[in-house]
Amino acid sequence: MLHRVLFGLLFSALLVAGNPVAHAAKLEGAYLESRTCQVYTGPCFANSESGLAGKCAILAWNVAQGDHAGVNLAGLSVVVVVHSSDTLAFEGIDNGRELKSMILVDERATAEQREALVDFARQQVGRAGEHVVKVEAQPITMSLDVLDLRGKLEVGKVVKLSTRAARVGDCICGNEAAYYPPLARLEHFAAGVCIENEFRGRGIGQRWSAPDSRSAYMGTFVY
């Protein structure tokens, strides 16, 4: 319990600390990420998974306010699913020699907003944005409680993700930390646990279900 409280307080403190230029940002909101390897872990566990796991990821943004390319995106979400030939490790998406990705865009968006969301997503995922094999409009619901560190993402029947803060019982070796960095540029973030981590889409050559894994990131973005 103490570990969870301290974890939450640290994240809250980071939120309060802020960025000195945050007031000039054009886009801000909440972010969720899941991987198919452990990210809140120690070197021994990470090394055992290197080259074998962690080749897939889900990245999701929910815009609280702001615009992209002059288009207001407040209240909308966009999700990128990535499949790599290699573990997405310290160099993030750049670790992948071969990449496939798909973009899931909020079905509530207008045609103009969908175009802006897709462009925004491509920009945030680097090389994966150059290898998009499919773009789909889907019903997306996403939420993040930054104080309790609980997140939830549902994208139609394609993605189901729920996250929570790490607890004392999640520590095995005692050297746990945010081992691999998040795949997106974030203002503040914390690593945690995926209660659910499921992708059932078609197009990138991979589907998975990896629940109860220390493979989540929860954060905020300011661009």
Global mean pLDDT: 89
Number of domains: 1
Strand content: 35-45%
Order of helices and strands: HEEHEEEEHEEEEEEEE
β-strand number: 14
- Overall shape: it is globular
Q: How far from one another are the termini?
A: 34 Å
Helix content: 10-25%
Q: Quick one: biggest sheet?
A: 12 strands, mixed
Structural class: alpha+beta
Please tell me how large the radius of gyration is.
Answer: 16 Å
Summed up:
The protein has 223 residues and is α+β, with helices and mostly antiparallel strands. 17% of the residues lie in helices and 42% in strands.
Structure description:
This protein is α+β, with helices and mostly antiparallel strands. It has one domain (2-9, 25-222). The protein has 3 helices and 14 strands. Strands 1, 3, 4, 5, 6, 7, 8, 9, 10, 12, 13 and 14 form a 12-stranded mixed sheet that branches. The chain has a two-stranded antiparallel sheet with strand order 2-11. The longest helix has 16 residues, at 2-17. The radius of gyration is 16 Å and the shape is globular. The chain starts with a helix and ends with a strand.
